[in-house]
Amino acid sequence: MPNETTTLMYEQVAREVARTAYPESFPTLPRVPSARYYDQQFYDLEIEHMWRKSWIYAAHVSEVPEPGNYKLFEHFDRSIIISRGLDGEVRAFHNVCRHRGAALLTEQKGSVRRFVCPYHAWGYGLDGKLVSVPEAHNFSCLEKAENPLTAVRCEIWRGFIFINLDKGAEPLADFLAPTTRQVADFPLEDMVVKDTILVEVDCNWKTAYDNFLEIYHVNTVHSKSLAPYLDSKSFTVSLLKNGHARFATRKKVGKTFFSDGVEEPEAFTARFKEHTVALPFFPNGFTALDPIGFTWQLFWPAGPGKAIMQAVMMGWKKDDDEDRAFWAQMRESQISVLNEDLFLFSSIQRSMSSGELPGILLGFQEQQIYWYNEEIDRRIGIENIPEHLRIQQVLAGHAGD
Ligand code: FES
Ligand SMILES: [Fe+2]
User: Fold this and answer.
1) CATH 3.90.380.10 spans which residues of the chain?
2) Which protein residues have their CB within 5 A of the ion that is ligand 2?
3) pLDDT in tens, 324-381
4) Residue nearest to atom 1 of ligand 1 (CA)
5) How far is the CA of 338 from the centre of ligand 2 (A)?
């Protein structure tokens, strides 16, 4: 992280603490149509133009450490194999046999020497090449070389594996650049996945995601857990290109709810000790970085009114009794804070789909909710969205890169 950016962050936070009025230079945010959160047509547009064309976090390298290790990514009606080849490369393939389409793998993770189809036993190498076809003489003109598994774009940022179903997409590094340069001084390469929590919720994926993009609710919903640790007035939002952002919040007592009573690693830039620095990354991710580790939160669509929340807990590379006990305790703490939020989602969803709330209203500190919604529209193509479902594009001039 260049010193200049660090200085800027401290200045921004100080300005936010001193602010007593709505900033004159910042636009009034129009209401966001509620229908975006329940309408089937809008949901279909998101799937087609956004989910299937954006870089999406799929797995971490620590989940596929050895050749032959794989993990399935199964969202928005696709099943994709993330696997490590004999050459050490991580690749992604559609989990679709080239014979008649059976899924090659059905277990969510495991280790294989080859992908062998459970239907008629066609076999594929870890590099996706078709290598064996039982009773091959029954096929006319079957060229193995012409029938490999279909590859999916797969690129890695500092241990985090992303996929993109759009072959023509920009490189991952370009897409993430506005956000990744904010955390160049956080030693992400030393981290591994410790645990994952999955929760199904009765709301649109955005209803759940929005909850993580503001701190306004912390003093009420998390009054006893998170609130005593965070100076909510200092919550500073920096919008970044491509729908990303960076948040910074001063810690009240130099700790967070999760790190209280825990010894922090020494070698950390002071700004991570003095602030909770959080990264919302488009389209569906959020993490609040902390020297003790952090949770990579993801929100997946499972229908207009259903979503899956995934919390991937990332910690340091050690594996002893003390570390395991710490992460077991962390899992409990995460679930208890999550439970403070969860009860709200279904009532919000009901209010929106009842038509009683035509649009949601956002304040200055909730601007990231508006910003990523703007990016959704840009990705879908504004002209493809029926007028009553669009939002106005008002924030582009307020985003940095
Ligand atoms: S569908 Fe896979 S071998 Fe037949
Ligand atoms: Fe919350």
Assistant:
1) 3-51+186-398
2) 341
3) 999 999 999 999 999 999 999 999 999 999 999 999 999 999 999 999 999 999 999 9
4) 100
5) 7
Three-class SS state of 289: strand
| Measured distance CA(339)–CA(309) in Å, rounded | 12
Ligand nearest to the CA of 117: 1
Q: Determine if ligand 1 sits within 6 Å of the CB of residue 105.
A: no
Give residue 401's pLDDT.
84
Q: What is the pTM assigned to this prediction?
A: 0.95
Strand order in the sheet with 130-132: 115-116, 123-124, 130-132
- Give pLDDT, residue 2: 47
| 292-300 CB contacts, 8 Å cutoff, 24+ apart | 292/258, 292/259, 292/262, 292/264, 292/265, 293/191, 293/194, 293/330, 295/334, 296/57, 296/160, 297/212, 298/57, 299/205, 299/206, 299/208, 299/209, 299/212, 300/75, 300/76, 300/205
Q: Could you tell me the CATH superfamily of domain 3-51+186-398?
A: Naphthalene 1,2-dioxygenase Alpha Subunit; Chain A, domain 1 (3.90.380.10)
Q: Is 73 in the pocket of ligand 1 (CB under 6 A)?
A: no
- Which residue would you say has higher pLDDT here, 390 or 5? 390
- Does 124 sit in the ligand 1 pocket, CB within 6 Å? no
What confidence tier does 4 reach under pLDDT thresholds 50, 70, 90?
Answer: low
What is the tens place of the pLDDT at every residue in 205-214?
999 999 999 9
d(CA 246, CA 289): 11
- Which residue lies with its CA nearest to atom 3 of ligand 1? 120
Candidates 81, 94, 100: which one to mutate for ligand 1, based on the most atoms within 8 Å of Cβ?
A: 100
139: DSSP letter: S
Residue 324, classed as helix, strand or coil, is helix
Q: Which amino acid is at 55?
A: W
